[in-house]
Amino acid sequence: MVKYMRNRSWKHLAFMAMVAPVLAGCDAIDSAIGGSTTEKPIIADQPLTTGVPETKLLSGTGGTRIAVLVDDQAITNTDIRRRAQFVKLRRLKGNPTAVARQELIDEAIKMREARRLNAVASDTAVDQAYARFAKRNKMPLNVLDKIMADRGVTKRGFKQFIRAQMSWQRAVGARMRSEGTTTAAPSAQPWLPAVGSTTRDTKEYTLQQVVFTVPKAERSQTLAAKTAAANRFRNQVTGCDNTRDLAKGLNDVAVLDRGRIRADQLPPDWRKEVETTQPGRATKVRQTPKGAEMLIVCRARDIKTVDGGADIFASEDFEEKASEFEKKYFAELKKKAVIKQR
Question: Pairing mode, if any, of strands 291-305 and 200-213?
């Protein structure tokens, strides 16, 4: 695999910071506050899939069912399930399913208004925004597609989210123009940050776990002796092939194959020990509730991973920070909406 980007820490990079550069070229803000756009809008009655599908587009087959109706727009259980995965990916607070349901309801209301105003972002604009997200995170589109698919979000689901946010920005801008409000631009949803590559170098370890078990009732009497026996065992370890032979004849000793584990998947209590242990050797013996334990590093190898998808969305500040104008505007729309939970 081609190396896309050296390993770096992303946690301190605010998810909210980069929306303006990402939206550059989309005319989302400029057109919203009075500028012109060369992009042809999607007309209101054109069949389309936006934040949620319209009722007439539902097939009604398989296990998909309508979970919520927002006026003439349907939100299915599949929509909610996929959005819940996206909620988890963004690490938003609250129950993922409940947050996803409310997010899709709000989007349905916003998209209805965007269609009414001919402000829906086109497929071209959405595709360009999706591609910019991949570019700014220094990954090929197929890698981003894979992350979305592996996490259960899907490329289509992420693009629906992008379309809804872009279209709402345009709708707010149109409302501001109609009311002569041009002193403040509509707030932009910060869903396209630059946070570094999700392709990174890491270690993969093949491990065995050796436990000198100590029954709870005997812990105070036998733990010290078991720990001493574990240390003697540790000094004889030269790899994982003969571990069980070494354990023969010892009472209450378990040898467990733990398989291949990435460094970032190691239990926090063991990670430093494993990373500083040479292959073929055992970590220091630790006293645990099970007794006296050690991990044997059978093998270690350098790998590249692209499954750090959560990192590109990890931010406590991801939630939309709407202006007072937007909040009032949305409250008016929601009051008029007919929402039927099923």
Answer: antiparallel
